């Protein structure tokens, strides 16, 4: 088994993890930042004020980006299965 191929597979797996998680993390970051600025401006220190909007926005992001995320993962899995003979052959 070629070590460069294994390193390449690892790099692709990490990139795919970043790519798939980026929309959800970006939405959570943006909503958290907006809520944090609002809390700082109004001196409201309620924990649920940041939790509930983040939860709802992540759910909305999952509904919007879910199809793309699934298709990307399925395509990556097909590529991985296609590379199996080259790994051990």
Describe this structure in words.
This protein is mainly α and 89 residues long. 91% of the residues lie in helices and 0% in strands. It has helices at 3-42, 48-88. Helix 1 (3-42) runs antiparallel to helix 2. The mean pLDDT is 90.
Layout of helices and strands, plus pairs?
Blueprint: H1 3-42, H2 48-88
Binned, the helix content reads: over 70%
The rounded Rg comes to: 19 Å
Give me the strand/helix succession. Answer: HH
Mean pLDDT: 90
Helical segment count: 2
Largest sheet: number of strands, sense, barrel closure? none
Question: Which stretches are low in confidence, meaning pLDDT under 50 for 5 or more residues running?
Answer: none
Molecular shape: elongated
Helix-and-strand structural type: mainly alpha
Number of strands: 0
Keywords for this structure?
elongated; 2 helices; about 90 residues; mainly alpha
What does this entry show, briefly?
This protein is mainly α.
């Amino acid at each position: 088994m070629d070590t460069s191929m294994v390193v390449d597979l690892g790099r692709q797996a990490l990139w795919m993890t970043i790519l798939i998680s980026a929309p959800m993390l970006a939405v959570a970051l943006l909503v958290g930042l907006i809520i944090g600025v609002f809390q700082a401006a109004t001196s409201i220190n309620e924990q649920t004020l940041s939790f509930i909007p983040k939860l709802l926005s992540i759910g909305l992001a999952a509904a919007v980006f879910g199809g793309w995320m699934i298709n990307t993962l399925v395509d990556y899995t097909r590529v991985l299965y296609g590379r199996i003979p080259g790994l051990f052959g």
